[in-house]
Specification:
Order of helices and strands: EHEEHHEEEEHEEEEEEHH
Largest sheet: 6 strands, mixed, barrel
Shape: elongated
Mean pLDDT: 85
Low-confidence stretches: 218-228
Distance between the termini: 131 Å
Radius of gyration: 35 Å
Number of strands: 13
Number of helices: 6
Length: 237
C-alpha cells in the first residue's frame, strides 16, 4: 500500500513567513536529494495524522507536489515543544538504483509462549524497538520480525540473531553492531530477592559451621583463675 502526501511549492522563506504559514494551517518543509531542493508546504492536519502511523516513518512515500508525483522518504520533522503541532518537515528523494539507510520498526512475536515468560514468570524487555538497515528501495521491508518463542530466563536476542529479509543488511555503526541486544527476558524481582536471601542464609550457615569450637579445658581454667585462694589467717600473739 502506497502512502501519498499532498504538497505545494512554497514561495516565501524565513522565520516570519514560516510563522504566518503555520497560522494558516500549513507546515513548511523541504524536499532534497537528486535534482533541485524544493521548498514546500503541507496541510497540517493531513500530515499530523499520517505521522501517527508507523508505516509513514519507514516506507517509500509518494509526494504529490503540485500534481507531480515522486518517491520520497521521511527524513526529519520538528514538533512544537508543548503543542500538538508539526513545525517543519524534511523529505529525501529516492533513487531506485542506490541503497538507502533507514530505520524500520521491530515487531516482537510469541512473547506469551517464551519459556522464560510462560514457565519462569519473566518479563520481556525491548532494548531496541527499531533497527538501522541498508537496502535498495525495492527491498525495503515494512518491519522486521523478532521471534521470542525460544527465550528462557536471562536469555537475550542480538542483532546477529535476527532473520533479515533478502537484500537487507543491518547498518554498521562500529564493530559491535551485531552484538547489540534487541530483547531480553528479565528475571522476576521476587525471584532475585529470594535467591539473594537464600544465598545469604547459606553463607551464614557455612560460616557458623566452619568456626573453631572452644577448647575443652577453657571453662575449667577460667574458673580456677577467677577463684583465687583466700589468704591464710594470722595467729594471735
Amino acid at each position: 500500500m502506497t502512502i501519498e502526501i499532498n504538497a505545494a511549492t512554497r514561495k516565501t522563506q524565513g522565520t516570519g513567513a514560516s510563522r504566518r504559514l503555520r497560522n494558516t494551517g500549513r507546515v513548511p518543509g523541504v524536499v532534497y536529494g537528486a535534482g533541485d531542493v524544493n521548498m514546500i508546504d503541507i496541510d497540517h492536519n493531513e500530515l499530523y495524522y499520517k505521522l501517527r502511523t508507523e508505516a509513514f516513518h519507514a516506507s517509500i512515500l509518494t509526494l504529490n507536489l503540485d500534481g507531480k508525483k515522486e518517491p520520497v522518504l521521511l527524513r526529519d520533522f520538528v514538533m512544537h515543544p508543548f503543542r500538538q503541532q508539526v513545525q517543519h518537515i524534511d523529505f529525501q528523494r529516492v533513487d531506485e538504483k542506490k541503497k538507502m539507510h533507514i530505520k524500520v520498526p521491530l515487531h516482537f512475536l510469541n512473547a506469551d509462549i517464551a519459556p522464560g515468560v510462560k514457565d519462569g514468570g519473566g518479563k520481556i524487555s525491548h532494548v531496541k524497538t527499531d533497527l538501522d538497515i541498508t537496502c535498495l528501495p525495492k527491498d525495503l521491508p515494512a518491519f522486521i520480525e523478532v521471534d521470542l518463542s525460544h527465550m528462557t530466563l536471562g536469555h537475550s536476542i542480538h542483532v546477529s540473531d535476527l532473520k533479515l529479509p533478502k537484500g537487507v543488511e543491518a547498518a554498521t555503526h562500529g564493530t559491535h553492531t551485531s552484538d547489540a541486544v534487541v530483547a531480553t527476558v528479565q528475571v522476576p524481582r521476587g525471584m532475585l530477592e529470594a535467591e539473594v536471601a537464600a544465598e545469604t542464609e547459606a553463607a551464614a550457615a557455612a560460616s557458623a559451621a566452619s568456626a573453631p569450637a572452644p577448647a575443652a579445658g577453657a571453662a575449667k581454667t577460667g574458673a580456677a583463675t577467677t577463684a583465687a585462694p583466700a589468704p591464710a589467717a594470722k595467729k594471735a600473739k
